Amino acid sequence: MPGWKPKLALVALTLGIATWTGYRAERRTMDAAGRPSTTLRSVVRHVLAPKSRTDSLARLNALRHSAGRSLPTPREVRESWEIIRAFTVDDIQAALAEIPDGLRRPANQVLVSMLFYRWAQMDPQAAMTAARQPPYSEVRDTPYIILLPWIQSDPDGLIRWVKSSQDDLLRNMAAHNIAQHWVATDPDHALARAKAEFPEAEHSVVLTLTRHLSGTKESRQKLFQMLASTGDTRLQQRCLSQLRWCFQDQDPAVALAVADEVAASGLVPDRAEPFRKELTHIAMQERPQERLEWLMKPESQSDPDSRQNAYTSWAAEHPAEAIAWIQQNDQVDFLADTVKRITYHQLRAGWHPGDAARDGRWENSTHRQFLAWRAQQPAAAQEWLQTLPADIREAFTAAPNIPTAEDEATQ
Prior knowledge:
mainly alpha; elongated
């Protein structure tokens, strides 16, 4: 039976291994998120600060180490913000000082962003000054985090500050955010304020107002009146450019009604008709049949090339649908022109039938368009075919695998 000395040595060895294992595990955890920096200030603070403050900082560091080299989980982010939103400026500065390497690790980046956001809620100008110093200035996102709380607490102060800034990108970002703030809080005077207080924000105000007021006829009239009162055709043109995209997914009838409203408003008279055409094109981009049928109406004032281009684009993507429409509406000229245009274009580009290096969709579409044309006008189609090289003639007269319009819809 072993004596007490060997037993004591065994116990000491076991404790040593356990302690070393625990130390190694803790060190890996600390190293994963970065070990906190130790400074004279941090030591003094830990001695003099109330225990509740040092405990908060310890809990924040524990969450940082829990995330390690990964992004914090939603739970860790939520718990971190619960701690940070109760911080004073002194707490924030102490927490930033203890985050090693500042922004290298994802978990540290997230915490630094939250700390600067909280700092900006209390003293945005001091926060911005710190954010523009190393190591935070090495990541351009840090100053932008400060803009939103600064706008909410003191937009006039932010405007004064950015006017003196030499950072053009930061000025543009601030102008965009200030424009959104003005439109959200005082849309009736947002444009006038931009012109008088911060001209750099005019463009963003117009774009934001257009999105904000584009929903109903009444709100659009309000927008048009506001723009007309400025007499600034440059801003009016920006409004029309933005307004086009507000209706890209709308019913074409609604988009065309808006075009009529713009024409009646008197804004930029020489742009009224181009605006109508652009809006029609955008609104019907995903409705090729409706787009073509609209262009064929006299009131569209479209030219033959516009109508032909609309059919050609439709036929390239959905040949079965396009051919079926041709057959129902007796518009065989679209078929002939499409076949000729695409064939001549491809021949000039060095096309050879079956060329594996080229996208075969247009070739298949044109082949099918030709067969549909020949079915309706055999003499004209055959006469044209004889003008082509022999390999092209053979390709056009072969029997393709032709899916139906239903097949195309499911592709």
